[in-house]
Design brief:
Helices cover 47% and strands 19% of the residues. It has five helices and ten strands, in the order αβββαβαβαβββββα. α2 crosses α3 and α2 packs across α5.
């Protein structure tokens, strides 16, 4: 009997050492394949490569992961939103390659944008170079916004407190099973709780998705 008990203990230990890690690996591998992808809500939004910019640079959604906001000429109201975004989202993720914030602003607001950047920089100790701004007419802003195909509306100043995630293929990403609203097209920048929970989680998901794709591509090239 004692021999059988000893054999059983050895078998149990071996099972824990070898089988359990395999189960854990399969569990997480399944999770990556099935869950670690942020749903596509709009197949393609308009690009911004032909829009005027703050310093004459060329900005675009293509090949970038973009956090996109529409500020129009409502900049006084959007200052608090900019601070929330900078503190809760930008500082956490700005060092990721090809990650950018793009704010869509009405023509003639360039000096005010420079002032906002100066205010964000105070005490930030953060590189703000990935804050990008594009400028257009109210009509151009509306056309761009309409291409996102969301349930959000711009106000009379062509502005909204909601920001959106656009991936490298110009697809709008978000949630199609949000527990509160069902389809979540964007994130309310006036709500620190929503930025801390929903938006932070979703940005992590899309960045992890691209890291996984990059590793897979690099692995395929090395074969």
């Amino acid at each position: 009997m004692s021999v059988n008990k000893e054999a059983f203990k050895k078998f149990l230990v071996l099972g824990i050492l070898f089988v359990f890690p395999l189960v854990i690996y399969l569990f997480f591998a399944s999770g990556i394949n099935n869950f670690a992808r942020l749903p596509i809500l709009t197949e393609e939004v308009n690009d911004i490569k032909d829009w005027s910019t703050l310093r004459g640079e060329n900005h675009q959604f293509d090949t970038k992961i973009s956090i996109v906001g529409f500020w129009g000429n409502d900049l006084e109201l959007r200052k608090a939103d900019a601070f929330n975004l900078n503190q809760k989202i930008y500082k956490r993720f700005y060092q990721f390659d090809d990650f950018q914030f793009v704010m869509v602003v009405e023509n003639g607001q360039e000096e005010t944008i420079k002032q906002i950047l100066t205010e964000l920089q105070k005490g930030a100790a953060t590189d703000l170079s990935k804050w990008k701004f594009v400028f257009g007419s109210q009509e151009e802003i509306q056309v761009l916004f309409d291409s996102f195909q969301t349930d959000v509306q711009l106000n009379a100043q062509k502005s909204t407190s909601t920001v959106f995630i656009v991936d490298r293929a110009k697809k709008l990403r978000g949630r199609d099973d949000d527990e509160e609203v069902g389809t979540l097209y964007g994130y309310n920048t006036t709500s620190v709780a929503e930025l801390n929970k929903k938006m932070t989680d979703d940005v992590k998901v899309i960045l992890a998705e691209y890291r996984l794709a990059l590793k897979k591509n690099n692995s395929n090239r090395s074969k």
